[in-house]
Amino acid sequence: MITNTELEYKGDLYPSKVVSYTQDVDSVYFYTDNNVILKLTVLRDSLIRFRFTTKGYFSNDFSYAIDESHSHGYNHLKITEEESYYQIATNKIICKIQKADLRASIYDLKGNVLLEDELGFHWEECYEFGGNIVKMSKASRDGECFYGLGDKATQMNLKGKRVENFATDQYAFQKEQEPLYKVVPFYIGLHHKQAYGIFFDNTFRTFFDFCHERRNVTSFWSDGGEMNYYFFYGPNMQDVVTSYTDLTGKPELPPLWALGYHQCKWSYYPESNVKEVAAKFRELQIPCDAIYLDIDYMEGFRCFTWNKEYFPDPKRMVTELAEDGFKTIVIIDPGIKIDKEYWVYKEALAKDYFCKRADGPYMKGKVWPGECNFPDYTNPEVREWWAGLFKELISDIGVKGVWNDMNEPAVMEVPNKTFPNDVRHNYDGNPCSHRKAHNIYGTQMARATYNGVKRFAYPKRPFIITRSAYSGAQRYTSSWTGDNVATWEHLWIANIQVQRMSISGMGFTGSDIGGFAEQPTGELYARWIQLGVFHPFCRTHSSGDHGNQEPWAFDEEVIDITRKFVNLRYQLLPYLYTMFWQYIEEGTPMLKPLVYFDQEDIQTHYRNDEFIFGNQILVCPILEPNALGRRMYIPRGQWYNYWTNCLVKGGKETWVDTKFDEIPVFVKAGAIIPKYPVQQYVGELEFDELTLDLYYKEGKEKSVVYEDAQDGYDYKKGRFSFLSFQMTGKELELNIQLHKEGKYDTNYTKFKINFIGLPFEVKIVEIDNEEIVFDAAAFKENQYLIVPKDFNVLHIIG
């Protein structure tokens, strides 16, 4: 009988005093007399990594989240020793490490506290599984706010919340429900007009507490693994988000069609049903670029097969759909049916590619095909094999994209809805249990899928969508917010989820428009489509168990609203494509919550509904029934009502009238918004002019337009067009300076510039200092000019 209670339960353990330190280029190692080591690495002047071990040495340093292709570097690093602490100084911040207990505090160069440890790093030995439960607690400042953490169905500001990160199949989840499908252990803190970020790169089940348990304490902890986190200094949220996105990586440009409207259902089958849906879109003149095939296209839900009764000639069908502008997307799940006659199963079995339990047998679980085994996507050899399986789908049949579902991984008819903890994984040569691999399983599946689709789609660009993801998944895939519900509450949730994902590095995200489960009213569907067209990924998806959810499932008014807003999305495609370009080039989120847009305005800190689409369009959805207007906060500056062209001054909450076929949309004064003509699908039309909607302001404003061939990789060789417009407005004149970069020559030859809010009557128009003849009467009536696309300076004089 063990009576030594110290052995039975040690409780929380802490680092003791520092006995020595060493420096190795950008890293400083602090050693304590109880075997704790802190490795502090300065990656940039504003980016520091903290890595702890309690065993006197570090295990292999490996992360799926970090983009290893991205280089780092700092300008200044100086270490000094004081009586009670060590000080590490860079060009942006100062970090102090206490000699007594390794607690850290970080300051700006003026000495203002940015973040400091409360208890700091501590741990609890895990006798059940081995290793440690690792913990960190930080002191929270007065008025501090918290944002980020990806896919959370809660308020934008996380102050007072406790959340959990464990990728979970949460069908018909509710507001505040934890956990959900994705794991993004990155948050942004904001206090005293300064922002910082924390990325806790630990793939075990993790938790974050934002002053929920204790009023002025923020903490994060994990069931296993290391205390390994990155600190990002702003002082602006933009700097924090950009730095995090650089660290975890950015995607390549999607094909432009992937930014169009998509239609999906569980399930469209047989072929006649797919063709009927596609034809109806063209008949009703509602643009659509992609149609999805859910699990029923397969033979007995076996991945990489076709049900020949429903789809007797898939290649012909996909080709015929493509001739009408539709790209076919198919679902692929991780569960491989246990069937000795099934070629994918036989290959994986022969090569020993399935996940195994601790005692040797393969992991077996029930999903759609029945009993299945599951590939270990953390094994690079398995990923390579999986990529090769896409040859027939992509190269031979002509499928344009792949949708990965059920990859949390989801398992039916078991209490925890996923693999048992004892399942073993390769983890790229770092063998581990499912406790460590669970949260990245879906990302590694998406990575393998991406590699396969990219290989066989070349020279075109791949398109992948995943349900489950961990930080860094954005390098391979887009995502959606999972199995939501057709309720007004879920419309509110979708709005916040996509904003939050955008500032958490995963910008290419959307929700199931209309709700996946249950059936929306026509009004709810219309309000959802009005929001969904302003999300980077735009797809209606629903469960056929609950009825039809195509636009024509509702009345004529809803059809007209759907057409109006999908048309608007297609007009704004060059603006949306430019947003995406800035996302991959600069790490700029495509959707910006108001606090991101103007963090110094305290009125933005708790706003949920309003967001900035790109850089210059303000959107506020209607989130309740029977509304003919709503109160909303218009950020500081001047904004034009998109529907009325009326100019309003921001910095206040105001009532905005609206209609059933409108939601509040405003455009920043000074913006130049590019527009294409409405097309039924990307590439349908050739056009000779690009429309530019110019919203006058007195002062200066810069706008940009990125274009390329809309697919392929020539843009990486400089064959793109990047236009910078510098607008300068004065009381009686307007100047537009145009600068072009890139070697791509667009098909159109001219701009149609619509002048909105011009406060004077135009008398003279000059292009590159030469006066041109223009019809003053026609301009007065129509307020637009047609000018050549290669001008340098356009001068409008009143």
Provide the structure class. Answer: alpha+beta
* DSSP E strands, number: 51
Which whole number gives the mean pLDDT? Answer: 97
Summed up, the helix count is: 14
Low-confidence stretches: 1-8
Estimate the strand proportion.
25-35%
Q: Please describe the biggest sheet, giving its number of strands, its sense, and whether it closes into a barrel.
A: 9 strands, antiparallel
Helix content: 10-25%
Describe the global form: globular
- Using only C-alpha atoms, the radius of gyration works out to 27 Å
Write structural notes for this entry.
- It is a single chain.
- By secondary structure, this protein is of the alpha+beta class.
- Helix content is 20%, strand content 31%.
- It is built from 14 helices and 51 strands.
- A hairpin with a 3-residue loop joins strand 45 and strand 46.
- The N terminus is likely disordered.
Brief summary of the model shown:
With 798 residues, this protein is an alpha+beta fold.
